[in-house]
Amino acid sequence: MKKKYVRTILAACCLMLTAGAFTGCGKEEKETVKKQAEETIDPAMAQVRGELPADIDEYDKTVLVNSPKGKSKSQLTYYHKGDLVRYQTAENLLYFNELPEGQTAETYEKIMAEMKKTYNGLDGMSEDYKKLDDRFVEWLIVDFETIDREKAKNMLGMILEGDGAISLSKSVEGMQSLGYKKK
Questions:
Q1: What is the DSSP letter of 122?
Q2: What separation in angstroms does the CA of 136 have from each of 65, 92, 98, 123, 167?
Q3: pLDDT tens per residue, the chain (183 residues)?
Q4: CA 89 → CA 18, 78, 98, 108, 114, distances in Å?
Q5: What is the spatial distance between Cα 113 and Cα 165, in angstroms, rounded to a whole number?
Q6: For residue 138, how many other CB atoms are within 10 A of its CB?
Q7: CA–CA separation, 56 and 70 (whole Å)
């Protein structure tokens, strides 16, 4: 009974946080905002979440989550047709008290700012983050059709095979070996 009550309160809070975004939106836009709020790992993600591509609903979706420490989380969403991944989004939530040893919120923010500059300088990729009172929230999207493959491969350590296509099954297998689970 207590879990159901807490879940109801959390859902109501998420809807209240997104209510401002509904003002002036059409019915279809309202549904998209509501759907995004329900699928995110943290309500604050709306502050950094970029715009999704117009054709995103044409793809199947596979979601993986990982909670390696405490309350920090990572969620990867692959948008694909069959085994071919077109888009990938990443939502990362990192609490200050769970930073790696020797890191402070200030030093980590410098790392995040440099990553943002690098990622946003690459065609086919967009990243944003925000430092909140007790955590960082980060959102990233990759368009594997338009990304500069050579720069991405060198910068991110991506493994692009053959024509550079991204395999859903290999991606899921690799991430599961790092502790991610299907949602």
A1: S
A2: 17, 8, 11, 24, 30
A3: 333 322 222 222 222 222 222 223 344 444 544 454 456 788 888 888 888 999 999 999 999 999 876 899 999 999 999 999 999 999 999 999 999 888 999 999 999 999 899 888 889 999 999 999 999 999 999 999 998 877 777 665 555 566 667 899 999 999 999 999 998
A4: 20, 7, 23, 21, 19
A5: 29
A6: 19
A7: 32
**Strands in 38-153 per DSSP E:** 60-66, 73-81, 84-95, 125-131, 135-143
Question: What does the alpha-carbon distance between residue 121 and residue 140 come to, in Å, rounded to a whole number?
Answer: 13
Q: Which helix (H) or strand (E) holds 182?
A: strand 181-182
The DSSP annotation for 129-172 comes to EEE-SSEEEEEEEEETTTS-HHHHHHHH----BTTTBEEHHHHH
| Token output for 89 | 């989004």
The values of phi and psi at residue 101, to 5°, are -55, 135
Residues 143/87, Cβ–Cβ less than 8 Å: yes
